[in-house]
Amino acid sequence: MSRTLLNFWLDLFLLTLFLTTIWTTFVIRFVFPPGTLAGGWRLWGASFDHWLEFQFWSLCLFAMAVLVHVMLHWTWVCGVITGRFLRDASGKKRQWNDGQRTLFGVGLMVVLLNILGLGFAAAMLMVQTPSL
Description:
The chain is built from four helices and two strands. It is mainly alpha-helical. α1 (3-31) packs antiparallel against α2. It is flat and about 65 Å long.
């Protein structure tokens, strides 16, 4: 399969996942009552919790597809970064080799995942249980 065709199918898959996630979010937000009042409500045989589960997994799949999309365009992303923001002392664009691009990508992923993890940890530590 050519790279162009692969990108086309991935982009079509991303669009489908995006629309699915948006549609599911609208169903959860505007069709069902708030979560605490949604007990017993069903849409097409699925409860509020089932719809939330579907939304979560469609969002996870969407995030993975975005990651693959960025990986397929990583050389271009690095080219834009080095061409626009990172120039050497004489003003010329820097050229990164494959190893440098890989290290930059892995480092960026580590930083982003740590930020997400810290936010999740903060939420876990600060959640308040109902008082009895």
